Description:
The protein is α/β, with parallel strands linked by helices.
Amino acid sequence: MRTxxxxxxxxxxxxxxxxxQTADPLAEVAAQEERTDRVAKQIWDWAELGYLETRSSGLxxxxxxxxxxxxxxGIADIPTAFLAExxxxxxxxxxxxxxxxxxxxxQTASATREQSEHGAGHxxxxxxxxxxxxxxxxxxxxxxxxxxxxxxxxxxxxPAEEGGSGKVYMTRAGLFDDVDxxxxxxxxxxNSAAARTSLANRSAKFRFRGxxxxxxxxxxxxxxxxxxxxxxxxxxNMMREHTSMDTRIHYVITEGGAAPxxxxxxxxxxxxxxxxDADEVRALWTRLEATAKGAALGTGTEVDWEIIHGNNxxxxxxxxxxxxxxxxxxxxxxxxxDEERAWAETISESFGENAIPLEEAQRVQPYSKTLGYGSTDxxxxxWATPTVGVRTATWVPGTSAHSWQAVAAxxxxxxxxxxxxxxxxxxxxxxxxxxxxxxxTQARAEFDASRGADYEYVSLLGDRDPPLDxxx
Length: 472
């Protein structure tokens, strides 16, 4: 196997133009390190919520235009979404960039938990996602120009991944239909190019309306909208016992009244439903709607709901994932400086018995095909074009996404180092894709076989317009 791999590598190299063999794409990534750090930190500082990322989106567009990319903004009827492209002819390789933050998260880069007044934070590392993808796109653009390799590199600015499904609207608009391969990455506490799929999901805000009255003086005249919410929640919690293993259901009461002595005439609960199978999400959703109707009937209230977002599961492409795994292994893991290690040790102490050795950041995890229990709108992109991803240790090993520890590392040099590492892996992958038509053909064959001959794209959010105000 080793000899075969060497011969294959030599054959591939001999097929490349001489300039492509001698140019160093990793040197172009290294040349962007200051930009990676600056952009990651600036977007972290802004911490803009989904569909409100005006400054973050604008910064990325400005950086790309300064490098000669043509930029089309406001795509798919989303003001903060954009498409940037450089090159001509050849295959189209896309890189995805996210940049939205999460609400209700403490936003500091301290190794100990602190409160902040910002109200939002980059607890999923999307500031790093944006900066690393930007760096990769620019490095690839420079490599294409140096080598004269035909092809187009695109960066898609994709807002509101956190519950807004920005990429779904872009997929629905056909913006990935002419893409040969899409590449993405994500912040994580480990380095991995595993073929990890995700859960399909759908969310909605259920709004109950009742009748206000004095809770003590005239309780018989009131009909509590909050009772409707609580009755729905009780029934859903009983429903959990009768669902399959991959099911995930969670909710928050977003409005429940203002004073105990006023029967609330309006209340709202925000639900997520997830499953590895999109059809099962649809089936669960029918049951969820039935609980809402039953709760309204039983409490004398009225209910309606608005679907906010919905994502299909990731369609993994092992042809691409195994190549990305080799690229990541050629780079190795993340090395901390003494100062970074001391900072990471303090973070690690906050995990208590869940702490794992910091040396895990130096490792690349074994390749596997697995089910991830998160959800992402990259899933819909993966049903439009062959898609491959990578994760790097931007967070201290043991860190959970959507935590204050993730926020802290996303604003620290450890996170920026991980973003630069991801940019290297994506750049190497893109070079391989531009210069290896056989790989593109094999990836497309697997993609077509996985989707099936009769496949027709259907989004889980229907035909609604982007919910541009869902974070307001």
